[in-house]
Every structure is written in structure tokens, then in C-alpha cells.
Design the sequence.
């Protein structure tokens, strides 16, 4: 594996080549002078039309019903297209996926005479579900461009059949992977394919890290893989880093993997992370009361779809079994399910057939199901950052959401920490919710 020093050496190389990235910049002729500027000095593009995007890309955007850009889209799409490394922290549900996807599609397909050989953009995210979701957004937005994308979450992703058909499917997948301009995948799988020389980064124009603070977290398993990936990336590749939360530690690591001397930063101050669209409540209780309280809530509080978070797989399995026995419309997703089971459960929930999902922190980040308007923290999250990610599964794109926290005596300290960290005061749940 590479050392940090290797990466720093590479970065120095990149700084030298910075001139070349300026060339890409000039290709985008945006007349920004009449447009308003944000406090951080970035031009705000009030419509997608004003971003000088490819016509077929615009068609894709409008065809999925996006009428105007969200704030992060209005500020960040054009700078990403300019080719500079960029770090974006914006709260959940504000459209970060489309931000990088629109910019990426413009860079890859928006201009004529581009050399289109080999993998050109790589999107890395922490879970399969998220990689699949991002791949879907790429496909939807790129519907009118000839996008060649591939989702890398395990080559035998949807396979269910005899040996011959599995082998056929793998062969087909490998061909698609070899042909792909864009790959959306999880770190482990990407490293795996790198080692088998099934992908290479020779022509990679940009790498995007979604949920970057999770990918770069010291305590989780991804960081080593991310370094392995960066070690193979050449100095010209543009780095785009996104998350709803960024700790100072993550910013330090970002400095190492980005061209820090010439980068753009779009950060949200912690106190500006608005939790307004998600109404949060707490219920003080004992561990042994949780099950009955949950039943009461599910029977009385109205919701379209609800996510219930617990802190471990064992609890996830038993709570699911209980709710299922009680005839609730429930599915469950956790890390001990097979890929196929995970996919099936996810589809059942995403298409609305099932209304309740019991899950763990693997579902805390990034997943976008617009019908979710209630999140229940059956267990309070151990990781404070994940509090905002979990409740952010509701309240997507300005919709209203509710979050209910179960708080035992032992949790009081953790709750106080959360309240202090987010500068909020979580009231007791009213009886008429
Ligand atoms: P984030 O990554 O910031 O948490 P997502 O990229 O998952 O947010 O987007 C949240 C939701 O907002 C998605 O359902 C997406 O389709 C929707 N969305 C994104 N941009 C727009 C837009 N410009 N207009 C309408 N809906 C949008
Ligand atoms: Mg996201």
C-alpha cells in the first residue's frame, strides 16, 4: 500500500500540471458577470439554462422534473466543470448527487472532440445501495446522452441462476465494465477490480468521493482502500469531495488527496445546517419499553414510509422478526444479508410495497427515498455525525420530516452531546403527534 508521502509526491506533480487543467476551464464559456454572487464569492446560477450545458443534458435534467437548481447546484456545478478540485459540504437532501452528476456528464459528454477511451469518471460511495442509487441518477440525467456507465458493487450483483448463466452474466458484466466511461462503486470492489486489472485510471478525468467523511474516517475500513485508489490515480485527475458532514480531521486528509493550492471549497457552517424541515422529538423510556412504544407509534403516528434505526445487526433481526409477526408492512436491511437479499429488500422498500424499514447505520447515509417522512432512532446513534445523516433520510429536498428519538437513562449523556453539537433542544414528543 502507498504511504501518505507517495500521495504527497503525486500531489506536487499535480500542482505542476495545474496549467493543463486551466485549459479545460477555458472550454466552458460562461458569462457570469451579470449573475449574483454568494457570500463565499461564487457565482450563483439561477437556472440550469444559464450554465451553458449540453442540450441533451438539459433535456435529461428537465425530463426528470428538475425545474431549477438547488442552492448547492446553483453554486457548484459550474466550478466542478471548470476542472478544479472541489470540496462540498451541504446538508442532506439538497441535491448533491445531481450536482456532481450534471457536472460530470457535461465534462464527459458536453463538449465535442473529447477523447472518449477508457474509464473517465469514478464515483466512490460507502454502500452498495448508495452506489446503485447514484448509478440510477447518472442514467436518468444522462438519458439523452450516450452514457456508458456501470455500477460496481460486485460483479454477480443480480445473479440468480445456474452456473452457466452466472458465468455468462459475469462475462457480460466484465465487458460492460471494460467499456464504461463512468463507474459508480464501493471502495472494496473498486480496489478488487484494480488488482485484477479489470479497470485502470489511465484516462480518468475525475474522481468523486460521496459521503467523503465516511470514506476517509480513521475508524472505518475504507480509508486504506481510498488511499490504494488514489495511489493509482494520475496527477491530472480532478478530485471532487462531498458530504453533509466534514470533521476537521477529514479536511486534513482531503488536503493530502486534493490539489489544495488551487481548490474550491463550499462549506456550510455547523450552525447553518438547518434542521428546520425535520421536526425532532424524544421519548424518555426504559429499554424494555421500546418495543411496545414503537408499536404504539407505528399504529398512531401518520407516515408515508418510516425508517427505524438500531445499533446492531442482532437487534435489527429480532425487531424485524417481531414487527413482521405483528403483521406490520416491514423489511429489514443490514450487513449480514446476502447481496441479493439486500437488493430485494431495498427494492421492496423503494417501490413503496413495504412501508417500514428496520436497519442499521449502513442505511444512515445518502439513501434517497422521497416518501420517507418519519425516522425513528430506536437506539440513539453512537456516532454523533450519523444523527444528522439518519434523520436526513426524511425531509428530502425541502419536504417535511419527523424524527423520534428513544432515550434511555444511559442515553441521556449521548442525547446531551447531540443537542450541544447541533445546537438544538429536542423536546418531548407531544401526545397528539
Ligand atoms: P443529497 O445527496 O444532498 O443528500 P440527493 O442528491 O440525494 O441529496 O437529492 C435529494 C432529492 O432531491 C432527490 O430525490 C433528488 O431527485 C431531488 N433533487 C435534486 N435536485 C433537484 C432539483 N434541482 N429539483 C428537484 N428535485 C431535486
Ligand atoms: Mg448524497
Sequence:
Amino acid at each position: 500500500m502507498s504511504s501518505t508521502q507517495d500521495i504527497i509526491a503525486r500531489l506536487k506533480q499535480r500542482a505542476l500540471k495545474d496549467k493543463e487543467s486551466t485549459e479545460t476551464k477555458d472550454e466552458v464559456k460562461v458569462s457570469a458577470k451579470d449573475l449574483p454572487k454568494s457570500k463565499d464569492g461564487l457565482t450563483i446560477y439561477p437556472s440550469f439554462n444559464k450554465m451553458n450545458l449540453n442540450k441533451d443534458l438539459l433535456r435529461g435534467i428537465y425530463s426528470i422534473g428538475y425545474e431549477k437548481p438547488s442552492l448547492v447546484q446553483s453554486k457548484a456545478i459550474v466550478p466542478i466543470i471548470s476542472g478544479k478540485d472541489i470540496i462540498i459540504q451541504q446538508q442532506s437532501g439538497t441535491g448533491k448527487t445531481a450536482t456532481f452528476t450534471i457536472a460530470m456528464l457535461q465534462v464527459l459528454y458536453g463538449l465535442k472532440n473529447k477523447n472518449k477511451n477508457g474509464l473517465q469518471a469514478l464515483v466512490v460511495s460507502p454502500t452498495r445501495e448508495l452506489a446503485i442509487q447514484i448509478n440510477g441518477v447518472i442514467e436518468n440525467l444522462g438519458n439523452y446522452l450516450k452514457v456508458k456507465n456501470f455500477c460496481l458493487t460486485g460483479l454477480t450483483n443480480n445473479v440468480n441462476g445456474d452456473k452457466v448463466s452466472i458465468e455468462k452474466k459475469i462475462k457480460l458484466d466484465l465487458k460492460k465494465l471494460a467499456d464504461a466511461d463512468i463507474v459508480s462503486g464501493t471502495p472494496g470492489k473498486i480496489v478488487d477490480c484494480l488488482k485484477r486489472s479489470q479497470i485502470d485510471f489511465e484516462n480518468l478525468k475525475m474522481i468523486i468521493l460521496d459521503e467523503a467523511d465516511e470514506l476517509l474516517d480513521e475508524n472505518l475500513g475504507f480509508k486504506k482502500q481510498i488511499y490504494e485508489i488514489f495511489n493509482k490515480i494520475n496527477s491530472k485527475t480532478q478530485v471532487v469531495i462531498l458530504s453533509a458532514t466534514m470533521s476537521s480531521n477529514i479536511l486534513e486528509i482531503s488536503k493530502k488527496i486534493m490539489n489544495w493550492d488551487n481548490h474550491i471549497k463550499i462549506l456550510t457552517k455547523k450552525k447553518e445546517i438547518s434542521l428546520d424541515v425535520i421536526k425532532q422529538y424524544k421519548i424518555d423510556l426504559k429499554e424494555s419499553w421500546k418495543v411496545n412504544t414503537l408499536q404504539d407509534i407505528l399504529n398512531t403516528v401518520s407516515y408515508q414510509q418510516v425508517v427505524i434505526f438500531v445499533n446492531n445487526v442482532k437487534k435489527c433481526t429480532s425487531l424485524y422478526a417481531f414487527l413482521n409477526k405483528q403483521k406490520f408492512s416491514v423489511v429489514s436491511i443490514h450487513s449480514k444479508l446476502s447481496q441479493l437479499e439486500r437488493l430485494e429488500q431495498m427494492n421492496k422498500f423503494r417501490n413503496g410495497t413495504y412501508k417500514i424499514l428496520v436497519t442499521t447505520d449502513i442505511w444512515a447515509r445518502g439513501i434517497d427515498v422521497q416518501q420517507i417522512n418519519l425516522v425513528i432512532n430506536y437506539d440513539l446513534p453512537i456516532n454523533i455525525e450519523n444523527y444528522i445523516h439518519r434523520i436526513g433520510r426524511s425531509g428530502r429536498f425541502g419536504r417535511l420530516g419527523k424524527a423520534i428519538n428513544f432515550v434511555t437513562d444511559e442515553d441521556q449523556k449521548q442525547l446531551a452531546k447531540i443537542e450541544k453539537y447541533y445546537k438544538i433542544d429536542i423536546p418531548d414528543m407531544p401526545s397528539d403527534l
